TrEMBL record:
One matching Pfam family: Kinesin
Record-annotated Kinesin motor domain positions: 4-341
Keyword Methyltransferase assigned: no
Organism: Amphimedon queenslandica
Biased composition (Low complexity): 531-545, 692-701
Annotated protein name in UniProt: Kinesin-like protein
Composition bias, Basic and acidic residues: 432-450
Coiled-coil features, chain-numbered ranges: 642-679
Gene name of this polypeptide: 100632490
C-alpha cells in the first residue's frame, strides 16, 4: 500500500522562558506556528514579526503524556507490523529535546515508559489475542557512533566501553538488500525477557557528556523488533520488522562549542544527519532517480524505512526555549520534507520452506499408499536386481521380436519404464559406436592396402566375405557346366553330321522325333550343368572310335535295305503294330522337355539376378567403407541386399534341384522310349521274317532277299548301339558306353 510518512511534533515541557509558538489547526490539519520578533540588534527599527507555520499529522503539546504518544504514533504502526508490514518510528530533534524520552522513556516513573517498552508490552498482549497464530519475536539493538556500528545486546560486554562491543558491519545482498553482520538477534518469548534485553542495551549505550547537555547521546540507536507470524495450517509465514530509532541530536555544530574528540563526534553526527537530509530531499523530489542511501551507515540501515517497503512515522521533538527556537524551526522544516516522502509498504509473506518440505513429504507418503492400493504391490525406491533383470529381458525380446509392437509392464511401473528407456538408449549408443569403430577400422585397413574384410574380425564383414566366396564358387561352377554343355552340344552336332553323311535308313527315324538330339536340354537356354554333370565324358574320342566301324556297317546296311522293306515297315507300324506305349512315352517326354525349358529360362534369370545383387553388395561395401555419414542408411541397404541375395540363392537352388530331377526323369523316359522302339523293330523283324518265309515265292531276287535279311539283322544292333550311346551320354557312364561298344562289336563279328 502507498503510504506517506507521517510526521508528529512533540514539545518537551520546560520551566524556562519559552519562545512564542501556537498549536492550532488549518482546515482540520494540525499546525505549529512559531512567532519570532525582529531583533533591535539588527541595527534598525523593525516591528515586524516573523511567523513560521508547519503542518503535522499531530502536534503534541508539552502536557501530552507517553501513553497518548504511544496510542497515536506507535499503535497504528505496530498493528500493521502484526499484519506483516514493516514499520519505522524515529525521533528527530536537537539534543535534549526529548528524543530518548519519547523512544525509550524516562527512568523516574513507570508512566514515563517510552515507545519501545510499550511496544513490547503491546505486542505480547496482542499475541495472546490470536491463539490460532504462532508468533515469534526477536530483538536487536544497534548503535551507530562515528559511522561505526556496535551491537548493544552483546551479553558479554555489559557496562563495558563502547569500543569493546562487537563491531557491526554492513553488506549488501545480491538483490540490493542491506544486511548487518555481527548484529545479534535474540528471541524473546515474553515481555519481561524482551525488556531485559532493552535494559542491557540501554546500559551499553555510549553516553558522553557534551557542553550542551550532560546526558545527551551522540550516537544513533536503532532498536529493532522482528515479528514472524504463521497461522495454524498455513504454508505461509509473515515476517515484519519494526525499527524504533533514537537519532543523535540534530543541533548545528557551531552551536555546540566543542573541540578535539568531541568536535570529531559532532562532525560525524552532522555528517550522518546531513546524509539523512540528503536522502529525504532526494526522496521528496520526484525527478531524482538516485537516492544517496550509502552516504552513511544510518541511512543505509534505514533504507527500507525511507522511500521503501515500510510504514514510517517521524516524531519531531522540539525544545521551545527561546534559545532553541531556531533549532526547533530547523527541525520542523526537516519534517516538512519528510512528509513529502511516499513509501510503498508490501505484505512480507513467504512460503515456509520447512513447512513446504514437510507437506510434500506427507503428500509423497499418501501417494505411495494410494499406489499400493491401486497396484497391490508395495514399492521401494529402487528396483530389485530380479526386477531389473526382468526389464532387461523384456527389452531384449522387444528389440528382437518382429511382432511385438510395444513394450509394456503390468502393473504399470514408472521405474521400469525409465529403466527400459535407459537400456534402449544404451543399446543404440553401443550399436552406433560399434558400427563407427568397424567402419573406421575397415577404412583404415583399405587405406593400408589391406582391404580384406576377413581381417577386420567383424562378424558382418566375415559373413559378407563368405557370401561373396559362395557367389564366386557358384559362378565357377556355372562356367564349368556351361563349358561341358558346349562340348556336349558339339558332340551331338558331330554325331548328327555323321548320321546325315551316312544317311542311315533307320526305318522309324524319318518320322520319329529325334529326341536325343533335339532335347530342350541341349538348347542354349538350359544351364550347362544339366547337360552332362560331372561327365567329363569327353566322349568324342570314344564316339569317333566307335563311329568308324559303325559307319562301315551302316553303309553296308544302307545298301542292303530295300525300298520294299521300308514300305513294309511303314505299313507295319501304321496298321499292325501297337504303338500306344511308344506314343505315351513321346508325349511324356515332350511335356518334360517343355517344363525343363521353362525352368531353364528361370534359372538363367535367377543367375543374372544373383550377379546383379552381388555387384550391388560390392558397391555398398565400398560405400560403407568410405563414408562415415549415412551409416545407418548404407547398413540397412546392405542388409536388404544380403537378404535378397540369400533369398535368390535359395530360389536358385530349388530350381536347380528340380532341373536335376527333370533330367533324370527325361533320361528315364528316353530310355523307355528307346526300348519301345527297339521292341517295335524286333516285332517288325519277326513279322517280316515270317512274311518272307511264309510267302516262299518272293518277287525279290535272292540277293535282294539276302540283303534285306542281313540288313534286318543288322538294324537291331545298330539302333541298340546308338541307344546305348545316348544312354551313356545321359547317364554319364563311360563304362556303359564301352560295354555297349563291346556288345555291338561282338554282335557284328558273330554275324
Ligand atoms: N515530554 C517530556 N516530559 C517530561 N520530561 C521530559 C520530556 N521530554 C524530555 N524530558 C526530559 O528531558 C531530558 C532530556 O530529554 P532526552 O534525553 O530524551 O533528550 P534527547 O533529545 O534524547 O537528548 P540527546 O540528543 O542528548 O539524546 C530528560 O531528562 C528527559 O527526562
Amino acid at each position: 500500500m502507498k503510504y506517506s510518512i507521517k510526521i508528529f511534533a512533540r514539545i518537551r515541557p520546560t520551566k524556562k522562558a519559552t519562545g512564542s509558538y501556537e498549536i492550532g489547526t488549518d482546515e482540520d490539519t494540525p499546525k505549529l506556528t512559531f512567532i519570532i520578533p525582529r531583533l533591535a540588534s539588527d541595527g534598525y527599527v523593525n516591528n515586524k514579526k516573523e511567523v513560521f507555520t508547519f503542518k503535522f499529522t499531530e502536534v503534541f503539546g508539552d502536557e501530552v503524556k507517553q501513553d497518548q504518544i504511544f496510542d497515536t504514533v506507535a499503535r497504528p504502526v505496530i498493528e500493521n507490523c502484526l499484519e506483516g508490514y514493516n514499520g519505522t518510528i524515529f525521533a528527530y530533534g536537537q539534543t535534549n529535546s526529548g528524543k530518548t524520552f519519547t523512544i525509550t522513556g524516562g527512568a523516574e516513573r513507570y508512566s514515563d515508559r517510552g515507545i519501545i517498552p510499550r511496544t513490547l508490552s503491546y505486542l505480547f498482549q496482542q499475541y495472546l489475542k490470536s491463539p490460532g497464530t504462532v508468533f515469534t519475536t526477536q530483538v536487536s539493538y544497534l548503535e551507530i557512533y562515528n559511522e561505526n556500528g556496535y551491537d548493544l545486546l552483546d551479553p558479554k560486554h555489559e557496562a563495558s566501553k563502547l569500543e569493546d562491543l562487537p563491531r557491526v558491519a554492513l553488506f549488501e545482498g545480491s538483490n540490493g538488500e542491506i544486511h548487518l553482520k555481527n548484529l545479534s538477534m535474540h528471541s524473546v518469548t515474553s515481555e519481561e525477557e524482551a525488556l531485559n534485553w532493552l535494559f542491557l542495551g540501554d546500559t551499553n549505550r555510549m553516553i558522553a557528556e557534551t557542553p550542551m547537555n550532560m546526558a545527551s547521546t551522540r550516537s544513533h540507536c536503532i532498536f529493532t523488533i522482528h515479528v514472524t507470524s504463521r497461522e495454524s495450517g498455513a504454508d505461509t509465514i509473515r515476517k515484519s520488522k519494526l525499527h524504533l530509532v533514537d537519532l543523535a541530536g540534530s543541533e548545528r555544530i557551531g552551536k555546540t562549542g566543542v573541540g578535539g574528540a568531541l568536535l570529531t563526534e559532532a562532525k560525524y553526527i552532522n555528517l550522518s544527519l546531513h546524509s539523512l537530509e540528503q536522502v529525504i530531499v532526494a526522496l521528496s523530489e520526484k525527478s531524482r532517480s538516485h537516492i544517496p542511501y550509502r552516504n552513511s551507515m544510518m541511512t543505509s540501515v534505514l533504507r527500507d524505512s525511507l522511500g521503501g517497503n515500510c510504514m514510517t512515522s517521524m516524531i519531531a521533538t522540539l525544545s521551545i526555549e527561546k534559545t532553541n527556537i531556531e533549532e526547533s524551526i530547523s527541525t520542523c522544516r526537516f519534517s516538512q520534507r519528510v512528509a513529502l516522502i511516499k513509501n510503498e509498504a508490501l505484505l512480507n509473506e513467504e512460503v515456509d520452506p520447512s513447512l513446504m518440505v514437510a507437506r510434500l513429504q506427507q503428500r509423497v507418503e499418501e501417494l505411495k499408499q494410494e499406489l499400493v492400493l491401486a497396484t497391490g504391490e508395495e514399492r521401494t525406491d529402487e528396483l530389485t536386481d530380479e526386477e531389473k533383470s526382468s526389464v532387461r529381458s523384456s527389452v531384449t525380446e522387444f528389440i528382437e521380436s518382429k511382432e511385438m509392437s510395444y513394450l509394456s509392464f503390468n502393473p504399470p511401473d514408472m521405474r521400469k519404464i525409465q529403466l527400459a528407456f535407459q537400456i534402449l538408449k544404451e543399446t543404440i549408443l553401443t550399436e552406433r559406436q560399434s558400427e563407427k569403430d568397424s567402419s573406421s577400422h575397415l577404412l583404415k585397413k583399405e587405406r593400408e592396402g589391406e582391404g580384406d574384410s576377413n581381417s577386420t574380425g567383424n562378424v558382418s564383414n566375415v559373413e559378407m566375405k563368405r557370401l561373396q566366396d559362395m557367389v564366386h564358387q557358384r559362378d565357377e561352377e556355372l562356367n564349368a557346366l556351361l563349358k561341358m554343355f558346349k562340348q556336349e552340344k558339339k558332340l551331338v552336332a558331330e554325331r548328327e553330321k555323321l548320321l546325315k553323311e551316312h544317311s542311315i535308313q533307320w526305318t522309324e527315324r524319318p518320322k520319329s522325333p529325334r529326341l536325343g538330339r533335339t532335347s530342350p536340354l541341349s538348347t542354349s537356354s538350359v544351364p550347362s550343368n544339366l547337360a552332362t554333370p560331372s561327365s567329363t565324358v569327353t566322349t568324342p574320342p570314344s564316339v569317333t572310335s566307335v563311329a568308324t566301324p559303325i559307319n562301315d556297317k551302316r553303309a553296308l546296311i544302307r545298301a542292303e535295305l530295300s525300298k520294299a522293306r521300308q514300305l513294309a515297315f511303314d505299313n507295319y507300324r501304321r496298321n499292325i503294330a501297337d504303338t500306344a506305349l511308344l506314343d505315351q512315352h513321346k508325349d511324356t517326354l515332350k511335356k518334360k522337355y517343355s517344363e525343363a525349358k521353362d525352368l531353364g529360362e528361370q534359372v538363367n534369370k535367377s543367375r543374372l539376378h544373383i550377379n546383379q545383387l552381388k555387384t550391388k553388395l560390392d558397391k555398398l561395401k565400398l560405400t560403407r567403407g568410405l563414408q562415415d555419414n549415412h551409416q545407418e542408411d548404407v547398413s540397412v541397404s546392405e542388409e536388404n541386399t544380403r537378404t535378397a541375395l540369400e533369398e535368390e540363392k535359395t530360389e536358385f537352388k530349388k530350381m536347380y534341384t528340380r532341373l536335376k530331377e527333370l533330367k533324370t526323369e527325361i533320361e528315364h523316359v528316353q530310355h523307355l522310349l528307346e526300348r519301345a522302339k527297339v521292341q517295335l523293330q524286333r516285332d517288325f523283324d519277326h513279322w517280316w521274317t515270317t512274311q518272307n518265309s511264309s510267302s516262299n515265292s518272293s518277287s525279290s531276287s535272292p540277293m535282294a532277299s539276302h540283303e534285306e535279311g542281313e540288313s534286318l539283322k543288322l538294324v537291331k544292333p545298330v539302333s541298340e548301339t546308338i541307344s546305348l550311346v545316348r544312354d551313356t551320354r545321359a547317364n554319364d557312364d563311360i563304362v556303359a558306353f564301352y560295354k555297349a561298344r563291346q556288345k555291338m562289336t561282338q554282335k557284328l563279328s558273330s554275324k
